[in-house]
Amino acid sequence: MKKNGGFAENFDLLMPGVGEVVGGSVREERLEELSSKIPDPKELSWYLDLRKYGTISHSGFGLGFERLLLFITGLSNVRDIVPVPRTPKNLLC
Is pTM, for the whole model, over 0.70? Predict the structure, then answer.
């Protein structure tokens, strides 16, 4: 997330009883800032190269569809919305 002074350039849409439904932020594109925050820069050198050889300022967002459905249906737990069986030994890999 890109910082501007003491603030991050982001937004969240919060709904009562559900929490964050939509979140978005401006991505950090400054190589020096990214390099200083990564614990092991060699491990993420491919990512730093994307910034080193040029990028533009860009943003992204995510919509929590399950949380939106939680709000619409009035259920109390997001696990009840996710269409995945939650029984033991039922995960197909």
Answer: no
